[in-house]
């Protein structure tokens, strides 16, 4: 449905920089419960070390305009991923700072 899927041409997946991750504990579904699994917690802690961020974290929906998706990761480079994670920012906040 359109409520759950981005319009054609509007998905980060089409850039080749984003992907979705799941695990057997949530029946390989894309679920909010993923963030509470061992795999989800590991991903949140370690993704920045490999240049990825949790693109749509809980609590930042007002900035991203996307419901929280703990399974959706995006490559942004290791240095930016670490910076965003340490400061608790999402890309929208980073871009806003760059525009000033």
TrEMBL record:
For whether the record's keyword set contains Nucleotide-binding, the answer is: no
Which GO MF terms does the UniProt record name? carboxypeptidase activity
List the keywords (alphabetical): Carboxypeptidase, Hydrolase, Protease
- Pfam families hit by this protein: VanY
Q: Which residues cross the membrane?
A: none
Q: Which GO terms describe its biological process?
A: proteolysis
Name all D-alanyl-D-alanine carboxypeptidase-like core domain ranges.
5-77
**CDD domains found in the cross-reference section:** LD-carboxypeptidase
What's this protein's name? D-alanyl-D-alanine carboxypeptidase
